[in-house]
Amino acid sequence: MAIELPPLPYAQDALAPHISKETIEFHYGKHHQTYVNKLNELIANTSNAGKSLEEIVKSSQGPVFNNAAQVWNHTFYWHSLKPKGGGQPTGAVAQAIKDSFGSYEAFRKEFVDAATTQFGSGWAWLVKDAGKLKIVKTPNAETPFTTAAKPILTIDVWEHAYYIDFRNARPKYIDTYLDQLVNWDFANANL
Ligand code: FE2
What we know:
The chain is of the alpha+beta class and 191 residues long. The protein has helices spanning 21-43, 53-59, 62-80, 91-101, 104-117, 163-166, 170-181, 184-190; strands spanning 122-129, 132-139, 150-156. The chain contains eight helices and three strands.
């Protein structure tokens, strides 16, 4: 069975004005869709055909891994955003952030630093590792999903995520993600 593009959890214009419908049309409709299409081409008539996306991400290398992990990472990213999101964390994750980083401000500084300093394309993540929250960054398609750490939230810092709306201003995109878009409900569900 072919890998499918999962539905977006909101309408394509629901994150505007922060992330425009045009960005979603390209980022979800073209980039994410292309990773799905490419993965299906690569696994057709191979031992990966019929495996779940998660199994493929955890067991593959090279082009198959790159496309499979990008499919998985992007789905996780769409759920890390929500309309009217952002701001202070809520629920259990608020306490976990306090316990792990000392304060929301300390968490925020470390998250912004990781997302800003990921050189070139990649991702910054909030993960749970050995009972504590941590921030990690990964290049290209790499993902903490293949490690012992459990992904809690992510931000895509490939240029295609922000270039239409923010041009080269990655720091402004990261602030907007934290202030207007981050989905703490999703973080709590993953915790
Ligand atoms: Fe992306």
